[in-house]
User: Which sequence fits this backbone?
């Protein structure tokens, strides 16, 4: 039963976006209220789907006047509970802002709406002879706005940087409905605070991203992928470094382990890539103007520790090898609701961390099952833990404390969301947290944008 004030706000907003774009029916709202992990779920006040920046601004003005909290949402592929409602917030879906302009060939740039999916952006760039620098497994659902809000990293981060490195300009709506629009199409622009950079990774807490001017990268026609079986993470790390030193064409370096590939094969029907199972796997992709395979093959042949290998240049075969890595998330979810701990440690500590984190998990929560994989080239490991109740934080606590001890980050690329707030102080100082709270208050004084994400509801004090 909808409360009278909910009804008034919903009716006012229906007057802005049209009745059909305010969803109140539980069945229609359901997919906006649970994230990909299925661990984070909550009821919304209603879901609103504006169709233009002007409509987003009018919706924000109405919500701010009513003191109604808003959760901005893109493709809802987040993994830290930052894109779904928690306490009856309005869900503001940006997916209808899906216009993409013609590629600017002179600069290699494109302007895209927040709701454009990564797959559409990639195809659009490809048709114009360019490529986009960020790629990730959820490309069919993840949107430009969501990827900016979370500063998405993904599989090519080691070559092209995260989303922040692609954003040349931004359009965003503040809580009071005012529009920040800075899309100069300039590579150099040192005129004050870098607002696009600030909004990257702000997880919908500072403003609602409605569009962006994005840098494109040259399309590289020749590609090669190698899947290498190795005895352990230490060998994978040494091999990854050796390949990086041998060729500048490296675009991705990923790691996964026996437990992950076993789950992938069991849940997807794929067969193991080699005649037998191995403890660890390194997947490498190289891309260049000319065939990168000879340099990659030479680096592999001259390395020690490779137990088995498969290399592919042909597109279909390359995609087949990637499946073993990309289908981890889906296979883990098919097994249960995981706790997801996306962490980074210095490369020198990576192999030791991989071993110690498994021990830390099973000793903190006997019976818990770690499944590890990640972007080894970036020192990023996705520590997934199965077999725990949603509220059981014993493993999270042990893992994140170990990360902090090793000088790492408690969130490498997925963000803080609601999931990591209790541990933020492990790797951000009290002064950092107070500065972040001050920025939040300055841009959203009534605290209606994604409250309870990144920072706790009550900002911490430096002395507290
Ligand atoms: C990936 O690298 C994503 O595939 C998801 O960041 C990671 O499911 C995960 O833990
Ligand atoms: Zn990842």
Assistant:
């Amino acid at each position: 039963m909808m409360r009278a004030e909910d009804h008034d706000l919903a009716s006012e907003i229906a007057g802005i976006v049209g009745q059909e774009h305010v969803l109140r029916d539980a069945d229609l709202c359901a997919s906006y209220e649970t994230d990909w992990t299925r661990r984070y779920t909550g009821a919304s006040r209603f879901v609103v789907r504006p169709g233009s920046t002007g409509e987003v601004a009018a919706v924000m003005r109405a919500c701010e006047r009513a003191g109604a909290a808003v959760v901005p949402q893109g493709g809802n592929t987040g993994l830290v509970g930052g894109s779904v409602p928690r306490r009856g917030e309005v869900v503001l879906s940006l997916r209808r802002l899906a216009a993409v302009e013609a590629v600017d060939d002179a600069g290699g740039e494109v302007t895209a709406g927040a709701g454009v999916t990564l797959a559409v952006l990639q195809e659009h760039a490809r048709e114009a002879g360019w490529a986009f620098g960020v790629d990730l497994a959820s490309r069919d659902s993840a949107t430009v706005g969501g990827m900016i809000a979370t500063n998405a990293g993904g599989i090519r981060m080691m070559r092209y940087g995260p989303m922040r490195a692609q954003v040349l300009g931004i359009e965003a709506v503040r809580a009071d409905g005012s529009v920040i629009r800075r899309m100069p199409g300039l590579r150099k622009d040192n005129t004050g605070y870098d607002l696009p950079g600030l909004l990257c990774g702000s997880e919908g807490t500072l403003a609602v991203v409605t569009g962006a001017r994005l840098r494109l990268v040259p399309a590289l026609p020749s590609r090669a992928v190698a899947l290498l079986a190795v005895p352990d993470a230490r060998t994978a790390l040494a091999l990854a470094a050796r390949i990086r030193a041998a060729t500048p064409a490296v675009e991705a370096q990923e790691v996964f382990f026996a437990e992950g590939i076993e789950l992938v094969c069991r849940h997807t029907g794929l067969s193991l890539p080699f005649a037998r199972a191995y403890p660890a796997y390194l997947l490498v992709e190289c891309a260049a103007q000319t065939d990168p395979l000879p340099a990659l093959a030479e680096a592999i042949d001259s390395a020690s520790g490779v137990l088995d290998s498969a290399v592919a240049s042909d597109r279909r075969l390359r995609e087949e090898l990637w499946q073993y890595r990309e289908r981890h998330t889906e296979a883990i979810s098919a097994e249960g609701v995981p706790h997801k701990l996306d962490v980074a440690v210095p490369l020198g500590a990576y192999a030791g961390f991989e071993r110690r984190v498994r021990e830390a998990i099973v000793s903190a929560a006997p019976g818990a099952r770690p499944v590890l994989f990640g972007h080894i080239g970036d020192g990023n490991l996705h520590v997934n833990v199965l077999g725990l109740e949603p509220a059981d934080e014993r493993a999270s606590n042990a893992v994140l404390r170990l990360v902090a001890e090793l000088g790492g980050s408690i969130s490498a690329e997925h963000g803080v969301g609601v999931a990591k707030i209790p541990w933020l102080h492990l790797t951000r100082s009290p002064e950092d947290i107070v500065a972040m709270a001050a920025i939040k208050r300055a841009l959203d004084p009534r605290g209606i944008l994604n409250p309870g994400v990144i920072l706790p509801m009550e900002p911490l004090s430096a002395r507290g």
Residues 347-364 form the longest helix (18 residues). The CA atoms of residues 85 and 106 lie 42 Å apart.
